[in-house]
Amino acid sequence: MSTAQATIATAVTGPPGLNLPVGWVAGDQLEASARTLNRLYHELAPMAARKIGRVYFFAPHAPAIARQLARANTDRSHEDLSGFSRKQIDWGRRWVKIIQRSRFEIAHKMATSAMLRTQAVEWYCKVRCPELGSGCVPVATFRRRSKDYDRAGQYKLLSQVDTRGRKTGAVASCSPEAWGHFCEWYLHANRRSVQLCWELTAERATRRGWSWPGIRTIQRKVREDLPEPTRVLAREGEKAFKSKCVPRIRRSYEHVAAGDLWCADECTLDLYARAPDGKGGWKRVRPILTAWLDVRSRLFVGWHIGDRANSDTIVAAFKVAVREFGPPLEAICDNGEDYKSVAGRRKKWASFDKARLGSIYGELDCTVHWAMPYSPWAKMIESHFRAVHERFDKLGDSYCGNKPEHRPEGVERIPVWKLPTVDEVRNRFAEWLPAHHARPQTGDAMYNLSPTQAMDQFRSRTPRERPTTDFLDFLSAKVVGPVKVTRDGVRH
Fold first, then answer.
1. Which pTM does this prediction carry?
2. Distance CA 220, CA 226 (A)
3. What is the mean pLDDT of the segment spanning 416-435?
4. Which terminus of the chain has fewer CB atoms gathered within 10 Å of its CB, N or C?
């Protein structure tokens, strides 16, 4: 007796009072048609087959029954289950177990009681299945799955697996040489489309005799076999790879006091304004916002809007912030030349020499940290600039978008003299900013407080002397660095 037969024999006992030997199996367990069961009964009765009511029972040691049992408990290794998840396969095995066990249990119940088959099926689904740990099974679902099981032939497990979400199609017909040739075309900085790379590879595959599937199969293979970091790095470059794929280090600001750490950067507003052109007329410009953000409270402590951004605008915004809140302990600055210039570094110098020249930060005992070059995510203020673009720029009539495809139709045809001046944009921003500071924030350690509330609640208790206006003006004055003496003298 095989292992499968022994398992069945130990689980099945003869119905009491019917004089049936222990280990005999019900006809339904053989997974044979009614005609086959009737033929086997007439061939093996009465020694190895009996009929009780409408249910057949057979001795498992009979050669014909042993072959039928082996066929019913065949190996499932031939069933291709590679397209299913482990959860789907386990669910299918659960249903196979329910259906196989029901073959004897229902027949046994009909033989030992006056139940009809409909009543026995309902009893098995509602009473016996919960006792076996499978939970209550709907009768309609059981009947449907039993029919699928009977029609499946040797693919019993496959008939019970939930096919939703399965990977359709096959990519086994793709030659490794053809796939390698496709990847050489596709993983390129020219960002060739899948369609073009597929066509080029198809031409080569025809000449070389490679196996090459259809375009839909290759599109799926690209999604599944080429990880996104690989595609982004090869097609979009290192900058996009760092921006989209490199994991970020989550920073906590809960232990940072408000007013101790500031972050600075510049952004071009997505709206048009007019500024003097130096010839008595006006020119169309996009104003530039230079701002300092308190990292703990998310409050714009100092800002400046003008038609250009340079070291002067950085210092102007910094002076406003220091007058209002006092100097910070640390500052995170952009890596641009304007910010380096404010820190005392000039293009003609190899590096900053503290002993030779003191900067406005150094004079105020503020430690400067430089953000990573070309890494917008390294500065918190970038995300708050997005709020400015969304809630301030888009409310203006001269909104122009940050890309040509986002530009409203007709905005380019607005006459220059109808555009707001840079001063008007600056005044409107000053009126808008208090409402922005009153909106609750959901960032780290903000606890749904507004920037104004966070500044009041988390403000540093360490007394910090605020510099006088004259001292700030002196620190903000431009320092003349090394100059070149020409034959015409020194020009300043």
1. 0.56
2. 10
3. 94
4. C
